[in-house]
Amino acid sequence: SALLEIRNLKKTYTDGTTALQGVDFKVNRGEFVVIIGSSGAGKSTLLRCINQLVQPSEGAVLFNNVDTTKASSSQVRKLRREVGMIFQSFNLIERVSVLRNVLNGRLGYMNPITGTLGLFSKRDVAEAKKILLRLGLNQQIYKRADELSGGQQQRVGIARALSQQPMLILADEPIASLDPLTSESIMNHLHSICREDGITCIVNLHQVDVAKKYATRIIGIHKGTVAFDGRPDELSEEI
Ligand code: ADP
Ligand code: ADP
Known about the structure:
The protein is an alpha/beta fold.
């Protein structure tokens, strides 16, 4: 069965803005899905509904056959451990080390008690270092996050998500603030995580050319509805 199933998803914010007006799709394990759409189309809201950062107004989000919109708070915590998030603005803790940022991912969403005390096992630290090495960040392990370039910070974001050992990675405009060359490197890392680790990826982008290069499937969102859902080669070149 599908890893993720979105059924008739609708979201109207409290100020009356409708961001999603009936979205349906399923995602199977191992897919690399790129969601494209212009600014304000509803892509970010969609990812936030999947991760329960936003409560949908209507519809269902089934993750591993569990309806997350009806999940208990302990089920939501479990869901968030299984879903890694990557953000446009990286969302690192700027004043702490790269290693510490990655270990925070190991805690899933940071456990305020053990996180504050810095209680990590030697195995956790070894695993975090291994992930950082894979992302080419072995020289940056003990640097403060805010000493790094944008591309390096996003690689830390990927490392943090990986350290959760997630089933699904959701990336919200992960390359929007990076130059083209750095963007390629970030997309290549995401692609290899999907292919080699079998982690399903859903990536929000607004660049159609990048989407076509990396996606196994493209979902186009327009004004809160699905306007396209298919293989990259099925997408018209015409605008
Ligand atoms: P995208 O990620 O495609 O740019 P968003 O999901 O961020 O789209 O936004 C979809 C619509 O919902 C936009 O009109 C946006 O202004 C609005 N929106 C997003 N977040 C909020 C919020 N917290 N409160 C009210 N409106 C919001
Ligand atoms: P980004 O481009 O990084 O997604 P946005 O400027 O779209 O950032 O949104 C930043 C924050 O403001 C988000 O938490 C979003 O939900 C919220 N937001 C976006 N649009 C609106 C809106 N029209 N009204 C209220 N909050 C909004």
